[in-house]
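Protein of interest.
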Amino acid sequence: MRVLLVEDDPRLASDVARTLQAAGYLVETVADGEEAWFRGDTEDYGAVILDLGLPGMDGLAVLKRWRSVGRQMPVLILTARASWAERVDGIDAGADDYLPKPFRNEELLARLRAIVRRSSGHASSVLTSGDLELDERQMRVTLRGVPVALSQLEYRLVAYLLRHNGRVVPQHELEENVYGLGHEHDSNALEVLVRRVRKKLGTDIIETRRGFGYMIQGASE
């Protein structure tokens, strides 16, 4: 899943990006409000982590502009501002959650998982489809209770399809959220990846809709 990280502190941005990448997310980082607004307005992200104190355009203004034009991706605000009134302003502007600095990376990941779950209609960090179970917190996949070893790309594929249960995910959308935007890969790379996953999970787990995309049928919380 693609995550937009908006943070102008290089050290913090680097630390958070590493944490997110280790948790299986595809991270795109920007450091100013104008670029953040443009990216969020023109690209589709699974979530945004947004600092408030940004050069160019304040994070709160960025968020208000996104919401005013109907951009609905979940947004987690990061800020060093301690005022409860400012936190209320952020929530009222359309933020899904608020995390004051300094913070622990474990809490950041937990809050990110929570806003992504809510946005996709899930109440638990454990997603299931029949005998298939994916625990987002532990990044663990099991089939009939037996752990299945997946590569990072394979995990992203399964996780994204489970988050969008019952929906046919277009190939271009799946590629962006498995490989990343602009990542160079062979034209048939996704088909090869799907075949690898089917060998590990069974041929009936991922359904191909020719000309439309892929889906995991009957997934549920």
